[in-house]
Structure formats: C-alpha cells, structure tokens
Amino acid sequence: MNDDARPAPEPQALPPHSGAADEANRQDPSRRSVLWTTAGVAGAGLGLGALGAGTASAAGAVTPEAVAAAPARQGRTMAGVPFERRSVIRVGIIGLGNRGNSMIDLFLAVPGVRVVAVCDPVREKAEKAAAKVTSAGQPAPAIYAKDEHDYENLCRRGDIDFVYVVTPWELHFPMAKAAMLNGKHVGVECPIAMSLGELWQLVDLSERTRRHCMQLENCCYGKNETRVLRMAHAGLFGDLLHGAGAYNHDLRELMFDPDYYEGPWRRLWHTRLRGDLYPNHGFGPVANYMDLNRGDRAVSITSIGTPALGLAEYRKEHMPPGHPSWKESYIGADRTISLVQTAKGRVIRLEHDVSTPHPYSRINSLGGTRGVFEDYPSRIYLEPTNTNHRWDDFTKYAEWDHWLWKEHANPPGGHGGMDYIMVFRLMQCMRLGLVPDFDVYDAALWTAPVPLSHLSVKAKGVPLPIPDFTRGEWKRARSGVDSEKPAE
Predict the structure, then answer these.
(1) 44 by DSSP, 3-state: which?
(2) Which of 27, 62, 128, 458 has the most crowded CB, counting CB atoms within 10 A?
C-alpha cells in the first residue's frame, strides 16, 4: 500500500500533569493567559503552579527542585527517530496572517510537497491562500474557516502528513497537541508554548504518539549561523566557552498597528509576563553551536529586566485618547538579559528588547579558547590567523558554508533565504525518511526561558534550574543542523 495513503491513527488521550498547571492548560486561551499574572514569588519558593511546572506541593507552590524534576516518561524517546519515508509530503497550514501567507509560497516552491488544507478564522485570508495553491498548479486545498476551532477538523483529516502552526502564541500549544493526537507531525512557529507544563505535555505527546513536534526556528538555518556552526564543530574556535543570542527588534509601531497583527495579541503579552517573550531566535543557533541536548545541556538560567517604560511612552506619543491600549498596563521589561549555564560550564547570554528604539540585532556570538565570532555586523578573530587585536573579515570563511547554502545559493523568500532553507530541509527529511535536524526536546529547551525568565525577573534574578526535557538523552552525541548531505 502507498505509505502516503495511510489513515491517521486514533487520538490517544494524554494523562495530565498534576497541580494548577492542569487547570491552566484546560482553559480556553484567553482565560489561560490570564493565569500568567497570578504566579507569585516568595523567597526561594517560587509560585509556579499557574505556569505549569508539573509537580505541585500541598500549598500549591513549586520549588526550584520541582521545576528541575522530570515527570515519569510515558513513551519512548524521540531523539534520533527518523520520519517515515514518503514520496509526497501533504501539508496542512493553520494561520494565514502575515507569516503564514508568506510561508505558504515556500512550501509550494519545494518539490514533492502538496498543500492539501488551509485554515484561518478569517475566510478571506484562507481563500487568498487557497488561490496561491491553485495558481501553483496544485489541486484546490480544503478550506477551514468556520470558527476558531475549525483547526481541529483540519487535524482530523487522514490525508495530511505535516501540520504547520503559525498563529498567535497562546494557540501554539493546543494546535500542536491536536495535530499529534490526530497522528500528524507538527512544526510550530516561535515560541512553541507559553508554560513549562505545556512544554512537558508536548514532550510527552511526541513520545507517546511517535510524532515529531518541532520548533520551526528559521535562524538556525541562517547563512552566518550555519557557517559558524560548521566552524565550531571543526574545532576552529577551540574549546567553546561562551555565546550570546538575542531578539532586539523595535516592534513598537507594529504592535500598535491594528492591521499588521490580527488584534493586539502580541502587545498584550507585555501585560502578562516580565521576562524574555521570544528567546528562540537567539537561543537556538547558540544551542546548536554548543550541541545542547547532544552532549551538553542547559542547566540553569538567571534573568534580570529593566522597568517597562517603552510601550507606555510610545502609546502616549502616538495613540489617541480612547484607544483600547489605554486600558493596558505593561509589565514586560523593556530589556531582559538572561545568563544560561550549561553542564560543561559554558555561559550563554540571551537578550530581548522589542519596546525601545535600536537597530535590529540577534547578537549571534560565539567564543572559545582559539577566538570569537560576533554578528551585526559580522566579524571574526581566530588564532593563529589573527594576532593583531583587530577584527577580520568573516567572508574569508565562505569555504565553511553549509551544504544547504552551497546547493541553494540564492534561495527565495524572506529573512535572507533562511525561511526557504528551513522548509526545504524539513520537507527533505520527511521525504527521504531522515531524522529531523531538531526535535521536541530542542523546542522545549529553546522556549523554556519564556516562563523561567519571567519568574527569575520577578524574583530579582534568582537562578532557576532548566529541566532536562531529554530525560538523560542529552549525554548521547547525535547529529543536528550540521548534517551530511543525503543521497537522493
């Protein structure tokens, strides 16, 4: 029988975690998000119940030790598990706003991919996406635009192999969950979820359903990032010591633009959390350089933040009286700085700032005993080539470019081509039956700073453990984005 025609397996119920996290995860997105503001911090005892740490004390508070503890494994590890080989990858896309509308073009550009279903509660957006599919010469996709829960019907289809979730953050978890429970592999935009309880549930679901759940972190496939990755793995930086990543991007105008984001959902997260809302773009590439979850792991995080002034000041200068934003109280630090320690003693600095004026930067830095790379602008200093205390030209190291960039020198799409490289590689892995470059454990790790930095900032920089989502598998070296070119 053609493997592309296999029906989806029956949904499997997942036992919930204990404590207040379960109640938070059972609520609809609007109610669940409100619970974020109720988590208290009392000395070293952190009130993590509403944030879903997975293990609650009798009083409802959770200690740092409980945060670090891994719940009992319910399935088998997904580390190193390949996709099923398929001749055609059938894709369903949920969310067709700015990001989804642009990304559908890239799925359509990859050979061997069919977009069979699209979903958005705004029918006009779904119909626009469907028109792109037919214009590309593919059969008209099914449209799911009945209401905000119609994505569940898309996930129930038996002719979808991969679900792509590109919606407001609070919807990422329930949509990824629905996809896996209906037998679909799923890729989710950043961040993959908003609480530790949700992260653990996604790990458990992936292991139980044997479906991959991936954070589609495009920056891991940036040209500079993949070049630095290969150089690091070749030992050019010596023993790795430190790295840095960030999302420093002035989004004030966009967050107050009623047309750019569908409603004020992104701005509203600044009324709920104080920490790093978007760590993935900076954390993912540095985690790859250091082989986190593949021989090393992140063990702790401490975060501090500035006062929350930027959004209120922008509102005062640009929003008219009576604008809905005047009812909002912003608590999110304008700049959050976090330090992550790894099991090998390395240090990673993460930054987040979308509320103040400054040029775009993801920092993207890596240092070791033989030298250092820094991005924005890109520059490098490596011994024995560099000995004069002056930065060198990073373009001299083009020989270290990843095979994906050598094969696709001028990729289509936005963000310098990294979006297409990411989609091409993921679809290639599915089509050829390869192990994905990153998995649910990477997704959980790269997103964990969202809830943990919030609590650490509230506790004035108290260090918090980062759970081992791999449950010990991190000790085993395995491949990642620095992959070998496969034989077609």
Answers:
(1) coil
(2) 62
Contact 76, 209 (CB under 8 A): no
Kindly provide the b/e burial profile for residues 387-413, where b requires at least 16 CB atoms within 10 angstroms of the residue's own CB: eeeeebebeebeebbbebbeeeeebeb
User: What is the torsional sign of CA 125, 354, 219, 393?
Assistant: positive
What residues form DSSP beta bridges with 488?
none
Please tell me the distance from the alpha carbon of residue 191 to that of residue 302, in angstroms, as a whole number.
Answer: 19
Sign of CA dihedral 79, 84, 89, 94: negative
- pLDDT tens string 390-446: 999 999 999 999 999 999 999 999 899 999 999 999 999 999 999 999 999 999 999
Question: Residue 463: which of 354, 256, 351, 303 has the closest Cα?
Answer: 303
**Matching residue, tokens 């949920």:** 94
> What is the H or E stretch that residue 461 is in?
none
Quick: pLDDT tens for 93-104.
999 999 999 999
**Quick check: 291 and 442 in contact, CB under 8 A?**
no
Return the amino acid letter for 203: V
Cα angle, residue 204 at apex, residues 200 and 208 outer, rounded to 5°: 170
Residues in CB range of 232: below 8 A, 6 or more apart: 240, 289, 290, 366, 368
Q: Would you say 71 and 55 are in contact if contact means Cβ atoms under 8 Å apart?
A: yes
Calculate the CA 421 to chain-centre distance.
Answer: 16
- Please tell me whether the peptide bond between 121 and the residue prior to it is cis, using omega within 30 degrees of 0: no
Give the span between the Cα atoms of 189 and 164, in whole angstroms: 8
Q: CA 467 to CA 29: how far, in whole Å?
A: 24
Q: In angstroms, how far is CA 18 from the centroid of its own chain?
A: 25
By three-state DSSP, how is residue 305 classified?
A: strand
Assess contact for 415 and 214: CB atoms under 8 A: no
What six digits make up the tokens of 365? 């830095």
Each residue's pLDDT tens digit, 197-208: 999 999 999 999
DSSP letter (8 states) at residue 474: G
Terminal CA-to-CA distance of the chain, rounded, Å? Answer: 22
Distance of alpha carbon 136 from alpha carbon 132, whole angstroms = 6
How many CA atoms within 13 Å lie on the side-chain side of 470? 23
In angstroms and rounded to an integer, the radius of gyration of the C-alpha atoms of the chain is 22
